Amino acid sequence: MKKICIGMFCCIVVGLGVFFGAQFILKVGVFAKPGEVIYEDSLLNEEIAVLDGIFQKEDLVLKKDVAISARNELSLPNLESNEILYSVSVPVTDFYSTETNIDVERVDELFNNCLDCTYTLIDVNDLAFGNKLLKINGEYYLDTFRSGAVFRILKFDSQKFDEEIKPLIAQLSNKQFPTESNVMTFAQTGVTAFSRLMNAKMNEVDSGEYFAEGLARYLSKYDFTHTSNEASFSDWAPTSGATGTPICSDLRFIDTLNTIGLDIVELTGNHNLDCGIEAANNTIDIYNANQIMIVGGGKDADSAASPLNFGKKGTNITMLAFNESTGGATYGDTPGANQYYEETAAAQITNAKERGDFVIVDMQYYECSAYVADYEDPTCDYAWATPGDEIGFFRHLIDLGADVIVGTSAHQPQTFELYGNGVIYYGLGNLFFDQYRWPGTTRSLILVHHFYDGKLLQTEIVPTVYDDSFQTSLMDEETKAWYLERLASERPED
Question: How far apart are CA 76 and CA 140, in angstroms?
């Protein structure tokens, strides 16, 4: 028995020796070497600093090595299970620059201390309306969210990624970026006045969709689209373009507005009563029947003065719209535009800001009418070209707390500027009208606002143009660059 016990003991000792010897040789079990964190050369110093905060904690012992690498992509790839989107960087330039695009080859310059570049890369979460987002190879990030940016991808190679690494990097993998699901878009357009010669054209083509063919796909894609329509619908809509002819709209033009996906109509114009009180009231009923929201006008003074509140995707907007000194205002129980009163405007802006809303104020101001047919007259580009102190008046609204001021009376586009904590667009020009004889009045600016979590990321300025076909379309890129440079160069001095 004694020999048997001694034999069993020896077997156990030998077995344990083999077992632990194998673990020692293979560096497993009790002799396992802790996993290492291997940073590859593709990582930037600031990325390593962030990763150190995760992986270099004293009480963290990994079972398996993890090799971490990084790469840049110019379109967002389908990520593998062990990859995360670490950052999104976008190219920006000066707010007033006419540059709109950079070639993909020039993106690399930004990673090599480019000294003569007129643009830079910033994190998309630092994007703000005070700089200008550029396209990369014609791709605009806020249009696609999958291109037009530098997408930084981190990869974690580990045999125990799901068990060990994934829980550790949860905070990194849950980063939020602007996407289609959380960015609200709002397109503001200028003067619309379906009337006179446009009525004659309607009788010829018998289609409201005809006039919107060049803009329908573009404008209808945004969450909200606005225009300032100065013409009430009427069974009696003159087809003459003669000066002094009432501004009245054929009923079929409601199809034009629906074709561009109109959500908001502004009624601050001075011609909405041209067709009479009954037509003005009926027009409001038509808008209501088509689920088009109204701002800056109404069937009486109280409804006209009501702010418009709208929004989605985490952004709430208060939109105010006033008529200042151009006529057509309501002062009681009759329809008309919302007359500007300082005390009312200040209170409405203050109340909206206290709610945390973003505030846009549209203003029907005095008009510049330096219309010239045979050459380019830049007079109306200037913000001081109108009667009154347009610059001081609009800047005062920013001082009251408004975020964006838009002039909606100008039949020719005017300049724009950053001012204080906001931005001013002095005049947007004609989106739809019959004034085709003068080059200045055939153009307009569409403002495409992009909002993220209540903040204005960007406003893209998109010029349009029409001719005697009265089919408004987007301006070509070459003309657009020339025109925006011309307007930006005439911004007011500080």
Answer: 13
